[in-house]
Amino acid sequence: MKARVKWVDGRMFVGESGSGHAVIMDGAPEAGGRNLGIRPMEMLLIGMGGCTGFDVVMILEKGRQAITDCVAEIEAERAETDPKVFTKIHVHFVVTGRGLDPAKVERAIALSAEKYCSASIMLGATAAITHDFEIVEAP
Questions:
Q1: What residue numbers bound the domain in which 81 lies?
Q2: Are 64 and 74 in contact (CB under 8 A)?
Q3: What's the rounded Cα separation, in Å, for the pair 77 and 89?
């Protein structure tokens, strides 16, 4: 896996993935940025959400659950002093489907958190990560 991050100007950078996708990162105005892109630490949380969401959907599909949507709502706290690492992360899953088994949803989330999601496991080295979920019955 490769990535490239290029400084544009001010506090703006363009990140390019090895798969050919790009994203703009920028700082807050008070940090010299122009607020034109996502912050790098926000990108870490989004990456974690994508990683665990991917796992949960795949596990539920393999378990023959009729899943129609999955949203990971993430809240995090950071240390007050440098390095301002994440200290707490909470992931609330909203899983929508038809007749979903709560035990299977809970197991999918646990498997992602404990075994499959590299991002969660890596961030778990500095942050206490918690999860909960709700199931929404699809029409």
A1: 40-137
A2: no
A3: 6
- Backbone φ and ψ for 115, nearest 5 degrees, come out as -130, -45
Q: Which amino acid is at 55?
A: D
Number of domains the chain contains: 2
Tokens of 80: 């007050």
CA dihedral defined by 101, 102, 106, 111, rounded to 10 degrees? Answer: 0
CATH number of domain containing 120: 3.30.300.20
- 34 and 66 part of one domain: no
The per-residue pLDDT for range 24-83, each reduced to its tens digit, is 999 999 999 999 999 999 999 999 999 999 999 999 999 999 999 999 999 999 999 999
